[in-house]
Design goal:
- It is a single chain.
- This protein is mainly alpha-helical and about 100 residues long.
- The chain has helices spanning about 25-30, 35-55, 60-75, 75-85; strands spanning about 1-5, 10.
- The protein has four helices and two strands.
Length: about 100
């Protein structure tokens, strides 16, 4: 018998056969690769910041810019995909601030 951590369930394992995957085993396998999830979160954050910088530098109206930024922040993956297809982008040579 094998006792899984934080579980009251017991699983009998036969060494000659593979255990059936269950939800807890799958979650444990995903959580063992925590560094991958952290790397993906950092990458997503950097891409979001880059997209927000491009939105701010665009020639769109301020209210449209704010809607796009809110959309990208609260719906990150879908927001970035939609922004890449149809969102406002900065033009080369356009400064982000008026002082620059």
């Amino acid at each position: 018998m094998i006792l899984l951590p934080f579980s009251t369930h017991q699983i009998e394992m036969n060494p000659g056969r593979l255990a059936k995957p269950n939800l807890q085993n799958l979650l444990e396998a995903y959580m063992e690769n925590g560094h991958i999830w952290i790397s993906l979160a950092v990458l997503l954050t950097l891409v979001e910041l880059w997209a927000i910088k491009r939105i701010i530098g665009s020639k769109s109206r301020a209210d449209h810019k704010m809607l796009w930024i809110v959309f990208i922040v609260f719906v990150p993956v879908l927001g970035l995909i939609v922004w890449a297809a149809a969102g406002p982008k900065s033009s080369p040579g356009v400064p982000i601030s008026r002082e620059g």
